[in-house]
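Quick one from the shared queue. A colleague (R.T.) flagged Drug H(+) antiporter as missing a structural entry in our internal table.

Convert sequence to structure tokens.
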Amino acid sequence: MAKQRRFDWILLVILMSYFMILLDNSIIFTGTVKIAQDLNLNQATLSWVSSAYSLTFGGFLLLGGRAGDLFGRRRVFEIGLVIFGLGSLLVGLAVNAPMIIVSRAFQGIGSAILAPTTLAILMDTYEGAERVKAIAYYGAMAGIGASVSLVIGGVFASLLTWRVGFFMNVPISVWMFYLAVKYLDKDNGQTGKLDWLGTFSSLIGMSALVYSIIGDWAKLPAFLLAILFLGIFIYQEHRTGQPIMPLRLFTDRERIGAYVGRFLYLGAMMGFWFITPQLMQNQLGFSALMAGVAFFPLTIVNFIVALQVARLTAKWGNGGLLVIGIALTAIGMVWMSRFTPAVGYWWGIAAPMVIVGIGQGFSLSPFTAAGVAHTRGSDAGAASGVVNVMHQIGGSVGLSILVTVQGLFTGQVAGFQHAILMGGGLLVLALLAAIFLIVPGERQSN
């Protein structure tokens, strides 16, 4: 164990890098209108500003996670920062549709490297109670970052320009690179080579899967392509001696529950973060700025609760805290599904947001901890990659489901109510995964 001050700097690097990823994943939600106006984008083209990022982010995650294991976490992390920072600069400078879409795709590759590598660095650096605390902050950042991003996106879109949200990543990336060189240990990784068949089959399979969810056409062929290449990928991982995603990661009951639960939980939350700002702008007359600020009840409560997670985990256990968190999130979502303009913002959205914020604060950190539980050090990057795959793919699937449900109804309020209720159903399934997989798995290991 190193000195506490060193841990503080490393934690800063981890959390700030993760926040940048979350910022660029969500800031688009409140900035889309301004982006479309500035670059003359139609709705179909505008959707690819977000989809291009999701496509490469989801497709390269397993590669990014395993690369850190093999080639050294610091080296791969620094490469990710360079790609992400350069991609952010190009997005901010975009003058037409092809430039912003390609730049967002390039930026997504950087995110796919950074997301699992930061979590793997955390696992390498911290032990015992310090690891529990660090994971608590990391998991909390997933919820806080997404919520704060909506506020930041609204501020920039309304008062400045949407480009600022991307330009600000450039100096932050440079600063993170400096801190990484100064404070992160230079590791050489493991002896071995990259599983190229597994790499390319996972890349094609994951990209096709994401496209089958978010794409505009040829969704069925993309889905069939995903099944084919993911089947090849799983077979390759079974037979190779140096897999990019060791299948032993799925032999642990607690980790399986965490992967399934995180997939379902993020599906509900991503849909909620996407459709709720639109409802507030269209039904309550909020500006983009006010729609972002309206998430403060969730964000503030989430932040306060997240600070207590390490202490509460020691008291109730990771699984117990997770069950409480998911249940509270589901209650808040079902309450919000009763919203009508007559009920208004404070009782129809803000009050249930408080419950959702408490539940989110209790849930995301334990999900992260369970997803990397009982892994050997050589698998930390791969396990972190799977955690982030479930986060990203789950969010994409859930967003697609909730938006589809919303579109089945003619009125926006009715569509919102049923979509949010569907999100509550996904959370109930996540709760079952926690009760029947994570909690028993945690008890078996103790």
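The chain has one domain: 4-184+244-445.
The radius of gyration is 20 Å.
Added to the table.
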